[in-house]
Amino acid sequence: KFSGLRPRRFSQLRMMAVQQPVDSGLFGSSPQGSSAQGLLALLEEQEPLLQAHALKQLYQFLDHYWAEVASSVPLIEELSEDPNFQHRELAAAVASRCFFHLEEYNDALRLALGAGQFFDVSAQSGSKRTAAENQYVETMISKCIDEYIRLRTEEAESGTPAAIDDRMVAIVERMFDRCYADCAWSQAMGVALEARRLDKVREVLDRSASQNGAQAKLLDFTLEVCVGQLLYSRDFRLQVLGVLVEIHRAMAEGIRDHAAEVHCLQLLDKPEAAAETLKALLKGNERQTLLAYQLAFDMAESDHQPFLMALLSHLSTKEESKEETENEEVEDVAATPMAEATEPEEPIDPVKLERLMGILQAAGFMVDLQLNFLHGQSKADSLLLVAVKDSLEQRNSTLHQATVAAHGFMFAGTANTSFVREHMDWFGRSANWAKFSATASLGVVHRPKGLLAQSKQVLEAYLPRPGSPSPYSEGGALYALGLIHAAKAGSRTAEGGALAYLLEALTAGGSLEPLQQGGCLAVGLCAMGTADKHLYEVLKNILFNDSAIGGEGAAYGIGLLLLGQAKATGWTAEALTELLAYAHDTQHEKIIRALAMAAGLASYGKEEEADTLIETLARDRDAIIRYGAMYTIGLAYAGTGANTAVRRLLHVAVSDVSDDVRRAAVTNLGLLLFREPDRLPPLVALLAESYNPHVRYGAALALGIALAGRAQSPGGKAALEMLEAMHDDVVDFVRQGSLMASSMVLMQQPDSVTKPFREKIIKIIREKHSSTMTKLGAIMAHGFLDAGGRNVTLALSSRSGFTKASAVVGVALWAQHWYWYPLQHMLSLSLSPTALIGLNKDLNMPNKFTATCNARPSLFAYPAMTPPKSEEKKERVATVALSTTAKAKAKEKAKENKEKAEEKEKAEETKASTPETSEQESGDVKMEDVKEEEAGTDDASNEAKASDAAKSKTKKPEPLRFELTNPCRVTPEQEQFVTLDLDQRYVPVNPRCRPAGIVVLIDKTPDEPEDVAEVEIPTNDGDDDEADAPEPFEWSPDMQT
């Protein structure tokens, strides 16, 4: 038909087609009609102009006709790869969007990277783009960033450069520019952190300074990410913290956040730099001095003994050497006359420095404050413990030991031993190792004490002495001494002296296993994390004696001594190698298990640095060594929630042939996820229903550890449902674990929440058919519910977010009570007071400092105390009446009635013969009057009953808020409802502090007299329940009546 046309004419026709509108119908149906086949036909032409025209039209209407275009994607993709095709970027954009609709996101991203200007990430989401185009761009950006992060992570972990497409890097850079333009600083920081771009972290922080207040918020956000350990790489996290410190120090003094700076320095383990910051604050004004006190309290709460000891050393040594430094400067100036004159450094007030160091020291103010609060605010229910004690069988030593341990937890930290003195005979029934545990429980009650003299005084009757008949009580006393002084900076010094005394007692004890067990544990607790080589040699010598009991204690002591000190090189690395070799040589399972746990303790907080050791332990043929590998994972990654560690534990939980290893794997999920507790219930939901009882037990403990005190949270409610189902498990030790875990979740909850559970455990204790292990769990649940006089909770991190090593260690070692009951007392290391205590500049408690809780009082009230038993009056039993006696009494009664009737007749005859007298004279009352009086009485009683009913109906409604006085209890779930009135006289020196813990206050009217209460240290017996002596009075015999 076109055979007569010349080639030139045909080319003109093609150009006309390009210039015609899309809906002209020249090449078939319009894309706005029913098909895009006409445009797809143009793609098969050889003329680039026709192909470009088709691609332009397809790009415009692709969201409507992508299903038809999908068949031609290979051709379009071929055009995008043709270097001679000028519109290959457009072809890549069309193919990418087509793959996007096909949900082939990897191919879509690959082609989007070659789309050039057609893939615009810098434009605003609402600018001239359809909703479908916005969705495509946002999805591709997300996919690009995810792929970029993955490649950067692989590069950082492998140490070799990754092949990252330059076009992908360009898109990420354009994305950063878009965030800068939109002031989306948090999004930019999130991408920089996940991609491990330290240069971008610094750049985002510098750029944010251009917006008022943005940099301060971004610094807080970045620190929160690092503290929450959302960055799984420890090395990169430490680098980011270093950048934060640099930014803080470069800020002007008026806006510089010293609290965040010191927090970063503590996370970086730089005590010298922290000491310099504290000293600079002490040289400032009163507000800065009080802020230094506040920071000292925050650091002391972390229980990070090596850091605190180094901090104290830097604070003291530099001040002591100050005079020497000044003398040297004078000599230098004299020797160099041309030296420039320098201003002398402003001295620190010695009173301020002494007060600051007193807060940080083991025997310092922090201990006194904790004792004052726990003793004064204690609501321990002694009658409840008496009821539990009386419900048990007298000959069951296991339940007796559990009750003693529960007593220790109920009175933990209160220094109140009144129950012990009142029931000394009952406590004295313990024998052998039960006596060891009972004596050690006194350390829980008196933890912590400041000075050795105080702790020795309360344990005087049990500590080792010549000619003592019971080495078990002596060993338990040493263990108690270690619990009292555990993880307290300065316990090694002459001031505390606890460690020196323990070493002396351990040496004098010889080969007595109870003394070795208690002494080694105590040495490890006092020297926790110090890595003292001399102490290691002492404990190693006891370990190599190959005594099962003494060797176990020595291994645990070594683990505590090397806490978090595992390194690739140095003497600690050689020590771990030596310990693991001995674990393979010895035949004692107790020693092997303790050594495996020691390896885990040494790896605490090391994260990926411990992967080599974890791999070695996890591949061992001995199940006990693999058991230690699970705790090594939990301790190395505690609180990080690292996905790699979680996956490994879950894999072992369902694959290992040893029940002990599987139980340990599930239990350690609680240590990993305690910062993200709501993740745990869905993670262990199936494991809680496993056929294996050991896995179910581990799931119960994991829920209790991670969700302690969080019964009102969504995760806590889900956990309680799972634990309640396990209360009726067919296996007794699963019931035991579920009861203990439930009590942890329900810690510091009101009566409305805990009452059903309390009734259940009381019923279990009283039932005779309940197994011993179930009863043990119920008894321990009582101790956990009312721990510390109902004023403490199980906390694995400080309020500032620092993971407390002593608390994590306490939980890990408490879980070993499966094999050794005395290790139950280790959980006391994890108990933390839930207090709000305000302190003025003199560290006294202002009575006028208050806080407001914007919730009903019943939501956070203490549970009701057990009422005392009422004395029942003994009623006399009625005497049995015989039939003959009844007949005789009936005859006698009939005779009396007959005589009365005769007397009545005579009286009536006499009355008829005498005149009537008036009612007033006779004093008689008519029956009508009597009835009226009775009716009146009935009406009065009815009115009284009606008024009582009305009163009950119109009961005063519960207030919606209430006031908290200083000091007071503030539970973790209560914090969100507590506010501090900034208009009152005393306000926090740190305006961003939480309404809990120790809050240093600044006085807005310092010239007015203060009403304060001093921090009083309770007496050693801790018994203030005795009534005060009455006022003087004169006695007379009439008082007897």
From TrEMBL:
Pfam families on file: HEAT_2, RPN2_C, RPN2_N
Q: Bias category Basic and acidic residues: which stretches? A: 889-911, 945-961
Respond yes or no to whether keyword Iron-sulfur is given for this record.
Answer: no
Gene Ontology BP annotations: proteasome-mediated ubiquitin-dependent protein catabolic process; regulation of protein catabolic process
- Name the record gives this protein: 26S proteasome regulatory subunit RPN2 C-terminal domain-containing protein
26S proteasome non-ATPase regulatory subunit 1/RPN2 N-terminal domain location is 35-322
Compositional bias of type Acidic residues: which residue ranges?
930-941, 1021-1031
Comp. bias regions, Low complexity: 878-887
Question: What SUPFAM superfamilies has UniProt attached to this entry?
Answer: ARM repeat
Q: Which family does it belong to?
A: Belongs to the proteasome subunit S1 family.
The annotated region (Disordered) lies at: 865-967, 1004-1041
Q: Which UniProt keywords apply?
A: Proteasome, Repeat
Annotated GO molecular function terms are: enzyme regulator activity
Source taxonomy lineage?
Eukaryota, Sar, Stramenopiles, Ochrophyta, Dictyochophyceae
Question: Does the keyword Lipoprotein belong to this entry?
Answer: no
Gene Ontology cellular-component terms for this entry are: nucleus; proteasome regulatory particle, base subcomplex; proteasome storage granule
Species, as recorded: Octactis speculum
